[in-house]
Amino acid sequence: MPFRILTRRMLVSGLLLTAATSQARAAEPVQQEKSFEKDFVYKARLNYLLYLPPGYDAGDTAKQWPLLMFLHGSGETGTDVRKLKGYGVPKLIEQKKFDHPCIVVSPQTPVPRWTPDVVVALLDEVVAQHRIDKDRVYLTGLSMGGFGTWHTAAAHPDRFAAIVPICGGGNPADAPRLKPVAVWAFHGAKDEAVPLRASEVMVDALKAAGADVKFTVYPEVGHNAWDPAYDDPEMYAWLFAQKRRR
To answer: What is the CATH number of domain 46-241?
Structure first.
């Protein structure tokens, strides 16, 4: 399948928005390479991949689609967005092993951390430009992206129906804020990069807060808990069944 590459830059300063879009090369669903900028107290710029599922352009123009946002790990930090295609959900899309009818947004942070406000600013742009079911927005990430998933959902719990943090960790004090968000966490018991305890303390805090939380531990897996997690059809069935709680 030939690649369709669409590059977009968006500058946001106060209430001024400008955007430029190049013409798509083909009609097949692929991950489009884009970029995004926004002024906070500082200027944030990141590249991202956008995947539109089959039928999005040709089907019912009134239909709204679920959206899955994927946050990468520290090894993919930078400005070469193609690095994202080797891991997690973008990898499955490239290998044509992702057949779920949803839009996928995979940002790339140029710095070794995820900033929740930047992640949600990008989400706002994508939601404004596409037909998104706002009650079915999901967030997932691995390693550094697992930490980013916990922190972003805690900072903006009203934006996500469910999250899937993989081999990450967060702040247990955020558990009450995360109570409206469905959670399924994954971790390898033999993880030496991010200890299993990082997920355990979050899950324990969520249970104590009365939250909806699932937890899968792979007994013989080290840091790479993402391959079995993202290959698990039950995870996707659970994820896409979740709706935002108001």
So the answer is: 3.40.50.1820
